[in-house]
Amino acid sequence: MRSHSKKTLILIASDYDPVGNGRQIEMAVVAILAAGYRVCVVLVSSGRGLAVRLKRLGAVVYSVSRRPAVYLSVISEVAAIIRNEQPQLVIGWSIETAFMVGSLRLLSRRSRHSWRYIQQLSHPPRTMIEATMVARADQVIVAGQWILEASKRIRPLESAFVVPPAAVAFDELMDRDQVAVQIGLNSKKTWTLCVAPLISTSRIDRLIWGFDQMAVAKNDVEHIVVGSGPLFQRLQRRAWVEEVDGSIHWFQNQPLLPFLFRHVELVLQPGHVAYGGCFLESFAHGIPSVAIDTPQSHDMLGDSEAGILVPELPESEFARRAIEILENKNLQTHLGDAGRQRAVKQFNKTVSASKLLESLGL
Known about the structure:
By secondary structure, the chain is an alpha/beta fold. It has helices spanning 21-34, 50-57, 75-85, 98-108, 128-134, 145-151, 176-183, 204-217, 232-241, 257-260, 279-285, 295-301, 316-327, 329-345, 349-360; strands at 8-13, 38-43, 60-63, 89-93, 116-121, 139-142, 160-162, 190-195, 221-226, 248-251, 266-269, 289-292, 307-310. The chain contains 15 helices and 13 strands.
């Protein structure tokens, strides 16, 4: 057992890109460190580069898996870290960690060391098993009111605290031509961006169909898709079959992602992805979005304020509204300005940090 002059908090999370959940974890770590706590982050998946970014902030980082997804096979290593660090708080970040941390919480009751279990949710529980594991938490933190409403369909969340996420612009700067050369884009064309795990709920198939429709009316656009998952090769094949693969740039991991936000003109989100993939970052940089109308996208974008919400059907509506934004600079400016206002009012960094510390009792 280690002895530290500061109280220790452990955060258990998947590895993430520097947007969405990854960006929120970084800002949470900064806030907790500033409150005088020692922060240990246990990453239970790998491949997105979060460990390097967190170490730069001053966190202690344990990487216990080489796999891109969360597997319970690492639970004994995580349990050993908790026993060694003796934390006062353990936070499970996002729903995919709930089963692991909930199980560790149950096991901890048989040991001499007890800790307070906090579960953060950027998505509601999808099954009764997940809901049951979340219920073991002493405190649940949700990223929006919509999660509380959605959770009622399976099991209402008790003792839940709403902590709005923060929308903060990146400071990273790189010339457009330099970005284009490094990742293989055409600097003369318009760029769109989608960040999402390549799984069924992300509905990237819908996005590919939209790219096909967009190419008919506007062929000077290149599409950047950042994400990994079991559907990666299948989606690439589908793009090839639909003859739109020449306009799509696929990246399972893209270190230059923060630099893209000063050059992208539109963010696209066709499915159910935490924080819309990169909605928060798009708000801070004044980039409009087109997204399928879901409880989460409506909560984040407002009533088509910072972007345009479209129904799932007809599928042609997604591409039509994307083209409308790209061809209408006044509309782009209007939606971008609304996004910046939402970043300041609804997703304020200071408010988010204050709410987080309050929810953790720090």
